[in-house]
Amino acid sequence: xxxxxxxxxxxxxxxxxxxxxxxxxxxxxxxxxxxxxxxxxxxxxxxxxxxxxxxxxxxxxxxxxxxxxxxxxxxxxxxxxxxxxxxxxxxxxxxxxxxxxxxxxxxxxxxxxxxxxxxxxxxxxxxxxxxxxxxxxxxxxxxxxxxxxxxxxxxxxxxxxxxxxxxxxxxxxxxxxxxxxxxxxxxxxxxxxxxxxxxxxxxxxxxxxx
Length: 210
What we know:
The protein is built from seven helices and seven strands. By secondary structure, the protein is of the alpha+beta class. It has two domains: 7-91, Winged helix-like DNA-binding domain superfamily/Winged helix DNA-binding domain (Arc Repressor Mutant, subunit A); 97-188, no CATH class. Strand 3 (63-69) and strand 4 (76-81) form a beta hairpin. Helix 3 (36-43) crosses helix 4. The protein is globular, with a radius of gyration of 22 Å. It starts with 6 loop residues before the first strand and ends in a 22-residue tail after the last helix. The model has no long low-confidence stretch (mean pLDDT 88).
């Protein structure tokens, strides 16, 4: 990968490259050239929408037509996106570094919240928070008045939603990071394209978020 060309994005390109909604299409075109109809079929888009997005990426210089397939009538254009981009902070229009990061993280967190709520509603509609004092301090957890939901959060259901703090030395925190990344890499090696998608978010930072 280091030998592959790198393109530096301008402001118009940055807006497209960082658009969360365009990420599936960008990923597809970065891996291999596709026509608009192929993009539509693989991503479940309306064909007109796929054509519109492909042309929009081409006009901004994000996508390029790398192949033209002849056919009776109008030729089929195949688009590709360079697999390596550097997007300068200054090109994003964000006023602060915090805003720059939030623009990418928050939409994904909102989507993750929506997926989580879908699982909660399968168990019922009467949810709330339990605030309880324990040996190590107070804890806040989601549940129902009758404690339903334990099987979702602590059982075998492949769902995890936990934000907490740990008192660790720098060395211990670095070790935790390496172990988490190792587990993620282990399961990435077992990736099955035909299986359902599960979202995994790993976050570790010094400080307390409450």
